[in-house]
Design brief:
de novo design (two linked rop proteins); mainly alpha; two-stranded antiparallel ribbon; 67% helix
């Protein structure tokens, strides 16, 4: 959650800098109703290039771009480590991955399950492609790239599908395989962040239509959803193996 909080603080600071710069240019027209800068006018003074342009493209602030790069890199790392361990398991069925720490935290059990190859090949191979694409998008945004509405919707749908897949894998891990993989858990957490803050960005810029009240609530309390989501995951893990966890105390 530290990454998410830092990212959104950065977004807020960027917006305040844009508004301060706008106030320093009194010759610019203002909205007649509330005296604030309009969306188009803020485009002209925004230092983050994160609003709708005249060509219909939309960028993002550094916050979201960095979040995508960081979470994508963590996901790529997790996928790479799991892929290497999977290769070792194929060569030696008795190989014990470094993340197999005890009967509960056992990456080996996860890797040898049917759920580890949902599409006919190891799941982390798909992760190498997907997280690599996320890093590329984040780097492009950092460089000032702007995308059309359909592109942002596509990113939102992609992260949603990834999150649904991760939540299904989580349920299989907890209630079918009865083991936990730390690298897999990391991918669950970062995919949730990718999906949620892409959704926040799209709500903020009207890419996803929503009532003003809902949009303002999401922007103000953006941290609530990931905190609650993570809390539910932690509770599920604790209650599933409570007897084991309590024996360690």
């Amino acid at each position: 959650m530290f990454v998410a909080q830092w990212v959104m603080v950065e977004l807020g600071q960027n917006e305040r800098r844009a508004r301060d710069r706008a106030r320093a240019q009194p010759h610019l027209p203002r909205d007649r109703r509330n005296g604030d800068m309009t969306t188009t006018e803020l485009d002209d003074v925004s230092t983050d290039d994160d609003r709708v342009s005249g060509t219909g493209t939309i960028g993002s602030g550094r916050g979201l771009a960095l979040l995508l790069v960081i979470t994508g890199a963590l996901g790529l790392l997790a996928s790479w480590v799991i892929t290497l361990d999977k290769i070792e398991l194929l060569k030696d069925p008795h190989y014990k991955p470094a993340c197999s720490l005890n009967p509960i935290i056992s990456c080996g059990n996860i890797m040898q399950s049917e759920q580890a190859e949902v599409f006919g090949f190891p799941n982390p191979v798909a992760g190498l492609v997907a997280f690599g694409a996320v890093i590329a998008i984040g780097m492009a945004l950092l460089a000032g790239a702007r995308f059309r509405r359909w592109y942002w919707i596509g990113l939102n749908v992609g992260t949603l599908l990834g999150t649904v897949f991760c939540m299904w894998l989580m349920s299989q891990s907890l209630y079918v395989i009865n083991s936990l993989c730390l690298w897999c858990t990391l991918t669950w957490l970062i995919t949730i962040l990718m999906f949620w803050y892409t959704t926040v960005h799209n709500l903020k810029h009207g890419i996803i239509p929503a009532p003003d009240g809902l949009r303002r609530a999401v922007l103000e309390f953006h941290w609530v959803v990931p905190v609650l989501w993570y809390g539910v995951i932690a509770l599920l893990i604790l209650t599933k193996w409570w007897t084991y966890w309590s024996s360690l105390i």
